Structures are given as structure tokens and as C-alpha cells.
Amino acid sequence: MPESLSLARLTDAARFAAIDAETNPSPWSEEAFRESLGRSRGFAARDEAGVVLGFVVYTAVAGACEILELAVTVSARRRGIARRLLDAAITDAVSEGARRCLLEVRDSNTAARALYAGAGFVVDGRRKSYYRTPEGREDALLMSCDL
Asked: What is the pTM of this model?
């Protein structure tokens, strides 16, 4: 595979925000990524030229991992990048003592839900009207898996 994974850097925040704006109806700002990367962890998937194609931002604390954001640019989808990013985050979190991983996902995001289910995540609950959409609001599904 031509993509490589590397630790996320603060200088990746602008590219992460651009990918998030392309793929997320309620994207994070560049500043939000910069702040999150300053206190959390992350990986970037880069092409051979070093261009970021996808990312994961997560925390690993007190025996738990939480996936905060995971996205892959539309042009690089269906190549296993999201799964590799998720696996890297989980592997790192386990090395820090995490025994459980948590996340939330839009109810309508069937591709992400399938990715997470394939990695062993199960739906634990629902947050009603959590995400904004152009049409109003939609639910967030709460998912988790034991590590």
C-alpha cells in the first residue's frame, strides 16, 4: 500500500480540518483540531508525497480509549485506510493500558457504523438529536468494544 501511518502533528490541523469539512456535516475547525492534538493523540495516513489522506484523533486515559474523530478524504476511500487508522489508535491505547474503547457515530453514517461493527464495536445506546444536520438534528449511536 502506498499510504503510511505516522503520528499526527500540530501542523496537520489545517489538513485534518479540510478533510473533516469534506466529509462531516458538522466539521471541526482547524483550531479545534489544534487544541485536540495538543491534549490527545492522533495518527495521519499519508500518501507517498506526504499528503494526509485520513486521520484519527483519540484519547487514552484511565483504562479507556475514546475515538474523537476519524475521517478519510472521499478520493481515498475503500482502500482500508480508516480501518488501519482505527487499528493504530486501538493498538496505541492498549499499550497505554486501555481495556475498552468508546465512540459515537451519526446514526445515518452507515459506512462508519459498518467499519466499527467490523472492528468489534457494539451499539450501547443513543443520544437523541445530538448532531446538527441541514434538515435539523440526528441521533448519535454510542458504541464500544472491549480491547
From this structure: 0.93
Write a three-state SS string for the chain: CCCEEEECCHHHHHHHHHHHHHHCCCCCCHHHHHHHHHHCEEEEEECCCCCEEEEEEEEEECCEEEEEEEEECHHHCCCCHHHHHHHHHHHHHHHCCCCEEEEEEECCCHHHHHHHHHCCCEEEEEEEEEEEECCEEEEEEEEEEEC
Domains of the chain, by residue range, sit at 4-103
pLDDT digits (tens, 9 = 90+) for 29-74: 999 999 999 999 999 999 999 999 999 999 999 999 999 999 999 9
For residues 97-120, average pLDDT: 96
Write down the CATH number for the domain with range 4-103: 3.40.630.30
